[in-house]
Amino acid sequence: MKKLLANRVNTLTPSSTLAITAKAKELKEQGIDVIGLGAGEPDFNTPRNILDAAIESMEKGLTKYTPAGGLPVLKKAIIDKLQRDNSLTYNPNEIIVGVGAKHILYTLFQVILNEGDEVIIPIPYWVSYPEQVKLAGGVPVYVEGTREQHYKITAAQLRAAITDKTKAVIINSPSNPSGMIYSREELAELAAVAEEKDILIVSDEIYEKLVYNGIEHFSIAELSEAVKARTIVVNGVAKSHSMTGWRIGYAAGNADIIKPMTDLASHSTSNATTTAQYATVEAYNGPQNTVEEMRQAFESRLEKIYPQLSAIPGFNVLKPQGAFYLLPDVAEAMAHTGYDSVDAFAADILTQANVAVIPGSGFGTPTTMRLSYATSLELLEEAVRRIDAFVKSKWQD
To answer: Is Signal given among the entry's keywords (predicted)?
Structure first.
């Protein structure tokens, strides 16, 4: 029999996030009291007005195909949002709606990358960036944002990584997994290098609304028309409006890139789910008070759980500025508990302490773990108590 699988799938690394989540689910089904801190989604239900708008659209019979790039009424809602929140002006032909921000990123890399093109990916990174680049024939080029740099890269690092094969750099702010945010000044320095070297900027802003302690999110596309012209802004309602399962994301950018993305989508998905698109119209056009209420809840949890996690022996934690993750460096804890692999460390925390965390190896940081605080404070505090007891039970001086 001929070889069944394409070569491209041999390069894929399974998602560590989904793997841990699956193992935690398996243990729960066995009756084990597992606390899951792996999920990258809010624990709130989608706001009532959005649910009602979805139901109303279905009852009106609005359940048919839509244009591949998204409903015109949704594109207008996105354009209005970008103007209102980010002072960015776009036309409908510069917007594409997709099946979640992940699908938007996948489609983007498919249309901009040729075989061997390089994409600069700061470490730590969201697990799917490298895989999507590789699936498009591209080559991930990693640049480390160290803990001392608050997990952000510098303009000098970016310049040093660029070659004649570099096509784009990915900026994720607020970041998954670190929760760190690039300041306007830091973004301006990175943008200057991108302009100088003539590369694209992929700005993943999916956690834009989840920022804390008075820190503001700033889109790199806001810097100037020239920067905007080379930037593809990627966003969606999954995190901001607790709509992860609705699968609506979008890109805003140069029409010469958005059009082929739309053409590709027409052959892959036809369109994002119609009902979810109408729900998203309400998400952006309706009241935004629930967005702020959820943000405040996450900030309150962070303020309470951050000092508790930091008190665990060998856990060195930078306080995040956004998103809903903590990324402790556990190198010291591992050294004192006999572990030389964060994957094994996280696996034993799951099976022995019954807490699911994501090993940092999947984010390019093999001495860290990601913990989501998108769950109740009661469960968060119990999870920290369990991890603390686990570490202390194995601690060796």
So the answer is: no
